[in-house]
Amino acid sequence: MSLFAKTLISCLMWCALLTGCAPGIPLLREDSLLMVERVRQAGGGELFPSQFKDLISTVDSGEESYLRGEIAAADDYFRFAMIKAELLESASVQEAKRREEAARAEAERKVREDKEREARRRREEELAAAEAAAAAKAAEEARAEQSEARRRAERARYEKAHDMPTRHTVKRGETLPQIAALPEVYGDSSLWPLLYRANRDQIRDPKVLWPGQQLKIPRNLDRNDYNEARRYSSERSGR
Fold first, then answer.
1. Contact at 8 Å (CB) between 168 and 215?
2. Residue 191: which domain range?
3. Residue 135 belongs to some domain of the structure
4. Chosen domain end from 55, 82, 103
5. Where a domain ends, among 51, 70, 103?
6. pTM of the prediction?
7. Mean pLDDT, to the nearest integer, of 66-85?
């Protein structure tokens, strides 16, 4: 048996004893109708439709007894209706509060899920972007490697077809990049650091050369030497 039912039975027993001892209690019609309206405003009709229907039935029974002139019986029905209304109002307030808290918890859950979903989407986008960047970098490195391989092959063919010099005499106005760009030297102006490092004994400032200087031209270099020279050249040009 539910707590609601137990409380209702106890109140009914008390009501019966009270009416038996005091038959002259004033009519409670208006008070019972007021209690019914309070239950309605508390949402009892929507939250507990069967209990609210039973409450209205009790009030109607009191109205019928009142119209027949059975005041004591009507009073019992109205008192019974007030007890039901009080219990139903309390239950309605609690249920409304419970539903409100449940709705708030559900809304918070949805907000959390939306945030988690957005966070996952961003992580996936970041991962996809990182993978795309890595793929692009790998492709760029592969193209650079192929380009370097072609340059090395062309240089090897050129060196094989020509007697490549190991020294160069500086002419008036020449610079290290200009000398490095000569086909018989490296054919690439960005490789001037190779000349600079091989001739540090006579070059203090890579921007200053003197006509007649005999510069050594390093040969038999590997890819790392070329890459390091280009990196150094790029750093110096950015200053």
1. yes
2. 164-237
3. no
4. 103
5. 103
6. 0.43
7. 93
